[in-house]
Fe-S oxidoreductase (Jiulongibacter sediminis), 237 residues
Amino acid sequence: MKVSLFIPCYIDQFYPQVGIASLELLEKLGCEVNYPKNQTCCGQPMANSGFQHLTGDIDKHNQQLFADADYVVCPSGSCTLHLKDHVFHQQPKVMELCEFMTDILKVKELDASFPFKVGLHQSCHGLRGLQLAKSSELVEEPYSKMEPLLAMVKKLDLRIPEKADECCGFGGTFAVSEEAVSAKMGQDRCNDFEDIEVDYITSPDMSCLMHLEGTLKRKGSKTRVIHVAEILNSNIQ
């Protein structure tokens, strides 16, 4: 199976270890992974700010770059949703990492170990856009494409906050246009995780974790953030 890895620009610039973990994890699972080095932004920041009509060149570039891939896999719910809806126009081959592992690879076991207390943050784009888990407002049977994968990791103590799908307040450009509201939402969300005494907060969206990380550091918290790919690829004994 040929998989092209799409790495969001903020991961490339600030959290390269997440891209490396995603690559190593997919290769461990038997995928032939290609990373096009001239990939660029998915175009989401411009589109969210009302400039979708100016992203045509970026969209065309990404369409051509990933045209031959069986699947385009991305370790970010928000970027995956943008690629799926606005660039590849609902083509099913564009998938978030946990979604791909669950629905396509049908992973049943992992050689991973992470001996820490971990809180799961379910990001809004992944939850309501990609349906990676059941959102609290829906009346249906609970499901998750992240929790079963994390349950395969040895020694991991998974903890879910009382407000299981509360927004972290980042929202991309929302954090710039409504910075006071965004900051307060981030503080509230960090309190949710500190209440359940976790060592790490994890999520399939590094953008949410980046927002929470800044809040945690400002308040001097010992709680850290880590992308779900890093945990699933980890072997800490």
Notes: Residues 179-195 form the longest helix (17 residues). The mean pLDDT is 93. The chain has two domains: 2-103, 117-232.
